[in-house]
Amino acid sequence: MTALTLSTAGAATLRADALVVGVAKSGKTLVVAPGAEAVDKAFDGRLASVLETLGASGSEGEATKLPAPAGLKAPVVLAVGLGSAPEDGESYGAETLRRAAGTAARTLTGSKKAAFALPIASAEDAAAVAEGALLGAYAYTAYQESGKDAKKPLAEVALLGAKPRDKAYKAAAERAQAVAEEMNRARDLINMPPNDLYPESFAAVVTAAGKEHGLKVQVLDEKALEKGGYGGILGVGKGAVRGPRLVRIAYTHPKAERTLALVGKGITYDSGGISLKPAGHNETMKCDMSGAAAVFAAVVAASRIGLAVNVTGWLALAENMPSGSATRPGDVLRMYSGKTVEVLNTDAEGRLVLADALTRASEEHPDAIVDVATLTGAMVLALGDRTFGIMANDDDYRTAIHEIAEEVGEQSWPMPLPADLRKSMDSPTADMANMGVRMGGGLVAGLFLQEFVGEGITWAHLDIAGPAFHEGAPYGYTPKGGTGSSVRTLVKLAELTAAGEL
Prior knowledge:
Number of strands: 20
Oligomer: single chain
Shape: elongated
Radius of gyration: 24 Å
Structural class: alpha/beta
Helix content: 25-40%
Strand content: 15-25%
Number of helices: 14
């Protein structure tokens, strides 16, 4: 785990393996960003020209290493691009700083300590740099041999110019560390092979975290689910050797006046069931529990920050496997709500486990429910692989979540719930089917879930199928593999709920 410190030392005097500075474009000129004045002085004011000679342009995502001159304690200077320099009187955006810090941390894999002299003009800037660096330093190495040639993530991040004695800066750094560490915990779970992460073992991880952070955890196993009538979760999990679970993890605050319920889809492996996925579509399906991982991480982060709001997480966990006991297309399930659902496609399983969890969460009458799921390929087709969709039964709430996501650096887009699509889920056999028309499939899934939300409860649905698992090359603070998508949005949502702003 990467350590974070706020340092009062100057850039020239702090001992570290590398010194990180920012550079930006000002027209056609490369300029050194604030925070790097001492470094530029050590280069006799020629840092920008030296970098230009090396081919640096200041573009976002760019990283250029060069030997440090005499006068600096660090042996290496790493210049990261910040894009276009802001206008006079303006500062760099939080996401720009976050991504630059993440790029630097990834570039410095194998280093013990790096000093970050990026432009920090406020506690919010310090939080962005800290968060980006801690997320960028992430690596999943649990199943790799640790030999002498193995490079470990950057071990320590020292923020320069971050005012460690200032309460606002200290609180911002502590919050950033809590959110980043829990987001990295979610990444670990998403990346874990499905032979080791299955409903029972996932529930054990949550139980252990509950004990560590003083959270109340309840786990319903197959017998409890059967007794309770959770037909959706049981129907999805019945084809697997390892049975399903419904996990409730609750954080409560003595001064809380509002309660937020979070519901996460936790399909620890999705083969598609009898409606089997073809080769080329099932290799990354260990990530189909990303919603549950995000919910789990957000609840723990809320407790670590100490938010004055009650946050309850519901993790609907199952493996979707084909076998002689698996649910078949044409079967009818009686859900926890009492509704019957005809299963037309067993690969539309996420909505079935979420439906039971949404109904159960509604029984506690929270002020709002937000579910998170890698739910539909249709959403990826609509929005791409870096943007999640937001649907809600309240337009203002949907807008608020979209604005929150943009603020914390998570790309999202508000999506409608067209009432005319509901009829396509009518079934001649049951109350409804788990499938509707193919076009607009992501919206159809949202309409299905809405049927299981308690009356009068504000609800939103985040379809994170695109950004939950990154298969391309790392960029900024985003690694290859599990990303922890939506964790920051959920934590910020909890903060604003605690403040009475939602």
